[in-house]
């Protein structure tokens, strides 16, 4: 693929899935700066591995895999510097933060941030209505294990949300 075609294909795919990246950043970044850094790191990782996308799965499934692996692995570093040559090679995307939420949604996000990396990823995919088969592809964990983990995560979230509801944070 010619460089210009690659850039256009990348920009088009990311534009259609930018909200997905922001959701991951929201769950794994504790501050606005952390979320921005993670967004940039995900963009770099996605751009660098874009040629590896073979179209065997939906682009969003592949993007989840790249983004979650980036977030879970903790590749992002505070104030990570990207070489200027590399930064210029990455197509520019709109710079915006996720919209403000209502109180219930904020409590849910707060509870989710208390989960570990895999639990956060599983919760995000569940909230995105991904099937267990898709989750298996994205996370590399077999379906029966995912079902058990999801049951435990739901219970953990119930307890965390009850703590918020009854003021025992």
Walk me through this protein's architecture.
The chain has helices spanning 3-15, 18-28, 32-49, 59-73, 84-89, 103-113, 117-127, 132-139, 143-165. It has 169 residues and is mainly alpha-helical. Helix 2 packs across helix 3 and helix 2 packs parallel to helix 4 (59-73). The protein is globular, with a radius of gyration of 17 Å. 22% of the residues are buried. Mean pLDDT is 83; it is low at 75-85. Keywords: Sigma factor, Transcription, Transcription regulation.
Mean pLDDT across all amino acids? 83
Which H/E pattern describes the elements?
HHHHHHHHH
Gap between N and C termini: 53 Å
CATH evolutionary superfamily of the largest domain: RNA polymerase sigma factor, region 2, helix turn helix motif
Report the portion of residues in β strands.
under 5%
Task: Tell the overall outline.
Answer: globular
Protein name: Sigma-70 family RNA polymerase sigma factor
Keywords: Sigma factor, Transcription, Transcription regulation
GO molecular function, one term: DNA binding
Family: Belongs to the sigma-70 factor family. ECF subfamily.
Task: Describe the structure concisely for a colleague.
This protein is 69% helix and 0% strand.
Which labels suit this protein?
single chain, Rna Polymerase Sigma Factor, Chain: A, 169 residues, mainly alpha, 9 helices, globular, Arc Repressor Mutant, subunit A, 69% helix
């Amino acid at each position: 693929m010619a460089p210009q075609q690659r850039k256009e294909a990348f920009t088009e795919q990311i534009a259609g899935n930018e909200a997905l990246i922001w959701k991951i950043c929201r769950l794994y970044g504790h501050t606005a700066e952390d979320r921005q850094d993670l967004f940039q790191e995900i963009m770099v990782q996605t751009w660098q591995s874009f040629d590896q996308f073979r179209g065997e799965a939906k682009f969003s499934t592949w993007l989840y895999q790249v983004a979650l692996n980036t977030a879970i692995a903790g590749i992002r570093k505070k104030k990570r510097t990207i070489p200027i040559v590399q930064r210029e090679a990455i197509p520019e995307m709109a710079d915006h933060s996720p919209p403000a939420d209502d109180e219930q949604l904020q409590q849910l996000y707060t509870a989710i941030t208390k989960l570990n990396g895999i639990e956060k990823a599983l919760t995000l995919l569940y909230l995105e209505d991904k099937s267990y088969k898709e989750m298996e592809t994205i996370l590399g964990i077999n379906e029966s294990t995912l079902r058990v983990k999801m049951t435990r995560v739901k219970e953990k979230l119930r307890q965390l949300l009850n703590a918020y509801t009854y003021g025992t944070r």
